[in-house]
Amino acid sequence: MRQHLLKPLRVILSLAFLAATAALFLDLEGRAPGEAVDGVLFLQFTPSLVRFLQGAGWAAAGFVGVLLLTLMFGRVFCSTICPLGTLQDLVSRLALRLRRKRRRVLYRYRRPLNLVRFGLLAATVGAALGGSLLLVAQLDPFSHFGRIMGLLVRPLAVGANNLAARALEGLGSYLIAPFVFMLDHWQALLAPIAVLALVVWMAARRGRLFCNTLCPLGALLALVSRYALFRIGIDRARCNLCAECSVRCKAQCIHLKDKRVDFDRCVACFNCIPACPESGIGYRLAWRGRGMVESQADDQSAWDGAARRSVSDAGRR
């Protein structure tokens, strides 16, 4: 496959997973067949793991497939399968368009906040081993997405459905049945509103910062992806420090100074590949790209001047 096709393929698949997952929470009439529900949930890591531990058997062991997928291709789960990740991409894309109008560069390399992300992972795993799934329920990205859809978006869908039902009723048609949305306590809305606001703010400001700091599943897959068979790598001979890859990296993990990628933070969005005018960054077998990724930095003064010019040019575009 030509590598420039990886990004559009990822976009298509991620939107399909987002639509399928959202449809489960917005199924007002409960008509979704059980097979469709099981199919959508199969590759959602935490629901699959919980169902497996509850005795559902290997038929619910999609989490194993996610781990194997990560060992092969890196964090494609985060970029393609996770609905909360796709929601962040939609927010960051809108923010990128707004920033371009103001001629500001949205992304640049940031150091990883390893203490935060791996600390949350350790706390979550420790609590789960101790018999408490509270942190899993509160920090899992699928749980976040479910609460946002179920408590915030579903009432809007019910309202739209009821407005359409009343309009048709006025015309003498009863094609659409009205529904009632019941909420025990309005305080239940506070948590999903706070999470949605935080996710939107972080995605608009820093792309996939949520995935690389506050998501324990992202931290777990980051550890696994360190041994991935295929990885993003930079060809030092072709790279001219134009910064096109760096300013499009939502994970902010492309280090131009050293011409390397912090692959454990890379969410496999593949935005960087078609952005490079010299085809200097690509997706390849790890052993083939190891020399390019781990080689030493260029001369300091040469890099400083080129990097400043390239980021400035990217901002003007």
Topology:
Layout: H1 6-25, H2 34-42, H3 45-56, H4 62-73, H5 76-81, H6 83-101, H7 114-129, H8 134-139, H9 141-170, H10 190-206, H11 216-225, E1 230-234, E2 254-255, E3 260-261, H12 272-275, E4 281-285, H13 286-294, H14 300-316
Helix pairs in contact: 1-6, 3-4, 6-10, 7-11, 9-10
Task: Summarize the structure in words.
- The chain is mostly helical.
- It is built from 14 helices and four strands.
- It has helices at residues 6-25, 34-42, 45-56, 62-73, 76-81, 83-101, 114-129, 134-139, 141-170, 190-206, 216-225, 272-275, 286-294, 300-316; strands at 230-234, 254-255, 260-261, 281-285.
- The strands form two sheets. Strands 1-4 form a two-stranded antiparallel ribbon.
- A hairpin with a 4-residue loop joins strand 2 (254-255) and strand 3 (260-261).
- The longest helix is centred in the middle third of the chain and has 30 residues, at 141-170.
- The two termini are 30 Å apart.
- Residues 289-312 have low confidence and may be disordered.
